[in-house]
Amino acid sequence: MKPLTINEINQIVHGEFIEGPVNWQVSHAILYGLHRLKWSHTLIFSERNINWHNLKNFQPCAVVTDLPADQIVPIEGITFIKVNHVMESYWKFVQYYRSLFDIPVIAVTGTCGKTTIKEMIKHILRVDRIVQATDGNWNLPVWSFGYLQNIDESTQAAVFETAITHPGHLTRHCRYLEPTIGVFTNIGIDHLDTCGSLEGYIQAKAELVKGLRKNGTLILNGDDENIKKIALDEFKGRVVYYSVSSSSPFQATEIHYAEMGMTFVLNHQGRQYHAFVPGYGDHQVYNALGAISACYELGVGVETSIKRLSTFKNFTRHLELMSGLNDCTILDDTWNTNPTSLNSALQVLHSIGKGKKNVALLGDMMALGEFADEVHRQVAELIIETKLDVLITIGEKAREIGKEAIRLNFGGKVYMYDDSFEGVREMLEELLDQNTILLIKGSLYNPHFSNFAQGLRSNKN
């Protein structure tokens, strides 16, 4: 965070000094109750009574409060600033701090691919500029205030994932970050438990359109049917599309699987660029297109982005290929699971598993609410289409996939387990061999899946 003096803080929040020293600078800021107090020199916005004595461990710090003066406990080294409404003062501070930096800020949203596109953009830009970005996939609004504070005078660009679990989350992200560019990856079925329906989820994602800074730029997946449902009538900025199956300013053609990645031809402004992106699947080509499109808006040429992207390293557990039990091949995709990412994973398994025995071990998909059973049953159609040899389900909801596959006359073997992995390894020891590819697809909220995948790795990796 760019340091600010206590006098500057007081002017920003339109406050009144009540108590404490004023000759020091603030280096951190938190909303008490939402963020943890971890450092001295912290500005604390508090709507409630604080553990006053705990503040002694973090002096100097400053408390912005709207409590009556007689409820404030004077503490040595603690500055108190009285305001009329804490939350109004908090957002004044947020707005002021963001206004200090005239830099491009990219917000990435969608059902799948947020982390990958964000990492690709960061990978491309960090060659020659200082970039702030989301840490891993810590991408909910609660962390956006911290990411905003990571921006300082040295920052030249920023790229953040903007995820949601509830309607209103993207609006909150944007209130902190004021993105100048918004990237949509895709919109599939997810968070139906809190958004109520697919339409509600689409509208929750569409909040990014209104949240962009005036005259901002939207970068959209032109092939995604649900993104097409987002109303753009009132959007006054630029709209840029990327695509595979339809014509767009950034269109990929001639897509092929290659060693450890995908090759494609990028068609842009009448020119063709031959490209390679590490990581398997058509979805990875879409990720590359989204990243290249965003970086182009920041002045990075297409050829330069393609060259830099060729050295990109995927996150672990994103269709991570490794040697496994009995010399089989494992596709570890235990980062997260929903119908969109599961479809992509099954397509990759089908493509690289030609001539081999294809096995999929699938877990429950989360955040589907009352639609959970129906959505899991729908997944069985994907199983039929990709012609698996063996389907293994683990979990009560995932069992619906297995039951529906059997009802649809799935030609392969089906094994269904409850929430335990008990007996699964023993079954796999009989099933797996060097001519087998095993896809393991589970949720990051169920660490048993990633632990199980790691336990199947061979020493060759």
UniProtKB/TrEMBL annotation:
Domain Mur ligase C-terminal: from-to ranges: 319-443
Chain ranges of the Mur ligase central domain: 108-294
Superkingdom, taxonomy of origin: Bacteria
Gene3D superfamilies according to UniProt: Mur ligase, C-terminal domain, Mur-like, catalytic domain
Entry GO MF terms: acid-amino acid ligase activity; ATP binding
Keyword Nucleotide-binding carried by entry: yes
Keyword Plastid: no
Record InterPro entries: Mur-like_cat_sf (IPR036565), Mur_ligase_C (IPR004101), Mur_ligase_C_dom_sf (IPR036615), Mur_ligase_cen (IPR013221), MurCDEF_CellWall_CoF430Synth (IPR051046)
UniProt entry keywords in alphabetical sequence: ATP-binding, Ligase, Nucleotide-binding
Protein name: UDP-N-acetylmuramoyl-tripeptide--D-alanyl-D-alanine ligase
Organism expressing this protein natively: Peribacillus saganii
